[in-house]
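Notes from the 1:1 (GR / supervisor)

We went over the backlog. Supervisor wanted to see one worked example end to end before approving the batch request, so GR pasted a single chain during the call. The sequence is below; no edits were made to it. Supervisor asked that the structure be written out right there so they could see what the output format looks like.
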Amino acid sequence: MDFQLIDIKTVKKNPNNPRIIKDDKFLKLVNSIKEFPKMLEIRPIVVNADMIVLGGNMRLKACIEAGLKQVPIIKADDLTEDEQRQFIIKDNVSGGEWDWEMLANEWDVEQLDAWGLDVPDFEVETDYSEKNKEIDVDDYEDTMTLVLKFSEDDYHLVKDKLLHLATTPEQAIFKLLGLTETENE
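Structure output shown during the call:
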C-alpha cells in the first residue's frame, strides 16, 4: 500500500484509542518526528474511511505538536467495525523482548533514550576491588537489604514477574537462585 500525503487537519484523532503516551515519552516522540520525519513515510498513520485514526493516534498528536501541516496516511477503508477495533489493539501490542545485552554493547544508550526506548537504569560497577575483600558477616544484622534501581514501569514488571513465581519477592529470588528459604536462615 502506498501512502498519501494529506492536510493534517483532515485526520481525526480516535477518541476510543486506549493507548497513550505521557510526558517525557511524548516529548521524545515529538523530537523523533522533528529529527527523522522520513520515519512517518515508512510507517504512516492508518485511518478508516471517515479519516479517524486506527493506527498512529499518538504519532498524529506528536505531529500536531511538532507543527507539521501534512502527514502521510494509509487508508484502511475496507475494514469492518470489528476489524477496526482489532487493528487498534493489535497495532499497539508490542511483541518480543529487547536483547538488553546487545543494546548495551552495540548501541549508544543516550541515542536509544533520545529515540524513545525506555532503557532500564542498570548501574554498572567497574571497580570491584572493594567488593572482593573478605567481609565479616558477624558484623551484619540478621537480614540484609538488596537494592535494585528500576524505572517505575520496569519495577512493576519485575514485581509482577516475581509474584508469579512465589508469594513474596524474597521467595521468588530464592526460587530463582535454586535455594529454599530454610537454606539461608
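Supervisor's comment: The mean pLDDT is 82.
Batch request approved.
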